[in-house]
Each structure stands twice: as C-alpha cells, then as structure tokens.
Specification:
It is a single chain. By secondary structure, this protein is α/β, with parallel strands linked by helices. It has a single domain, classed as Spore Coat Polysaccharide Biosynthesis Protein SpsA, Chain A (Alpha-Beta Complex), CATH 3.90.550. It is built from nine helices and 13 strands. It has a seven-stranded mixed β-sheet, sandwiched between helices. The chain is globular, with a radius of gyration of 17 Å.
C-alpha cells in the first residue's frame, strides 16, 4: 500500500499565516499538522511508501520537513491558486510521478482526526475490490452545506454523494480520507479525461460510486476541519489539551 498526502493548496482563508508557510506545516499542539497524519499512516503494516504532492511555491519547505521522515515529495509545477491542478489532478500527478501501481490511501494534508487509520484499512479490506471514504456525522445541517455529504445504505455502501449542497440530505460528511484498490487507479485518469472538475477530491467519489462500489467508514472521536483562523485555533487548543499543553487565546505558529 502507498499513501498520498494532498498538500498543493494555497489556503487563502488562512492568510497571512500561509503567505510564507503551507497549511499542513502549521504547528498544532507543537507539531506540523502533517506530522500527525504521517505517524497515523505508518501504523498500517502494509504501508511501504508515503508520498506528498505540493506546489512549486512550497516544495522546498516540504523537502526540508521531509528530510528526516522519508516522505517522498512531488512538486506539481504550479505557483498560484489560479493555476493549481486541483485535488484530483494532483492525485493523478503523484500516481504518475511516483510510478504507483498499488492499493492507495489518500489523505488531505490539513485533515486532523483521532481515529486510527489502521482500523479504517481493516474495515475496507473486508469489502473486497471497493473504494472507501471516512465519514463523520457533523450533526448540523448548516455546517453540512460546507462539506461533501453522503447517504449510506444498510451495508454502508454509498448511495448518494454531493459536494457542498445547498440543501444537505444528511449530516454525514466525507472527510477527505480515501482508500482506493489498485484496480481502481485507472479510473482516476478516466475521470480527468472525461473533463470532470478536478478541484475537490470528493468529486471523484461522487463520480465513482455510480460506477463501482464505494463504502463509507463511520468513525467516532474528533475531526477538525482546519479551514479558517478560528478552526485552526480550536484544533490547536483541543490537541494541546489532549497532550497536556496550555491552551492559547490566539494562534501562533511558534
């Protein structure tokens, strides 16, 4: 199994913090966000390589961070929010650049959660050749309008998926953590070749579940959507509390 961490966005809502530092390298509870993801992913016994795809603006920052970690960094060649490849475009770029032909765990580089990815993989393995997405009940329809929302059948197979709906059919949100079997990797290229929108990673799932089995993995605990300054401070303080660190009234990368 290979891991791809998507970290090529420009996080414009977190400026000025992200003018000089990519969001996944912002520290939360004293460590970069992406550190928590890598540690969790490496608990999975079958993971042999971790790849991270980013943009040219922040590629050197990630290479410096990755030095002692062994993470393989790919620069997608973009420099601005306007010319970005989008999440699915970057996923395909990393697959091609990394020569990946294996089962694949994909995680957004700003995705913070406290469930164990090894449990997600174990649940997915029993499904056979199917894809899966980790889903979280956000409990609020207004909040659900900001996410990709799913409806699951009795066996947790996805029956409906929509990105950022005006009228959410449920509060079950996709959390930008996905598992794809090796057999599904050619479908990512097909999705792009058909001209589908590549910006949101969930758009691939919204297309795929109508063609192949895709399952939702329900998890408990906490999930942090780090999209703006208030959410970043909240995530930092919750993890600081969990790890015995003093909480802060304002976020600081130091």
């Amino acid at each position: 199994m290979k891991v791809i961490i998507l970290a090529a966005g420009y996080a414009t809502r977190l400026r000025p913090l992200t003018d000089r530092m990519p969001k996944p390298l912002l520290p939360v509870a004293g460590r970069p966000i992406v550190d928590w993801i890598v540690d969790n992913a490496r608990e999975i016994p079958e993971v042999d390589d971790v790849h991270l795809v980013t943009n040219s603006r922040f590629a050197e920052d990630f290479r410096r961070w990755a030095g002692p970690t062994g993470v393989i960094v790919h620069d997608d060649g973009t420099f601005t929010n306007e010319d970005r490849l989008g999440a699915v475009g970057d996923l395909q770029f990393a697959i091609e650049r990394g020569g990946i032909d294996d089962d694949l765990l994909v995680v957004a580089g700003d995705n913070l959660f406290d469930y164990r990815l090894v449990d997600f993989v174990a649940d997915w393995r029993r499904r056979g050749a199917a894809a899966a997405v980790a889903v979280y009940d956000c409990g609020d329809l207004e909040l659900a309008a900001q996410y990709g929302i799913v409806e699951l059948g009795d066996d947790d197979r996805i029956e409906f998926f929509v990105e950022k709906p005006d009228d959410p059919p449920s509060t079950l949100a996709a959390t930008a953590t996905y598992l794809y079997p090796r057999e599904h990797l050619p479908l990512i290229r097909r999705f792009l070749d058909e001209g589908n929108a590549s910006d949101q990673a969930g758009s691939l799932v919204a297309w795929l579940y109508q063609r192949e089995p895709v399952y939702g993995y329900r998890f408990d605990g906490e999930w942090f959507d780090v999209g703006n300054h208030a959410q970043l401070l909240d995530a930092d303080n919750r993890l600081r509390t969990r790890h015995g660190l003093p909480i802060r009234s304002a976020y600081s990368p130091r």
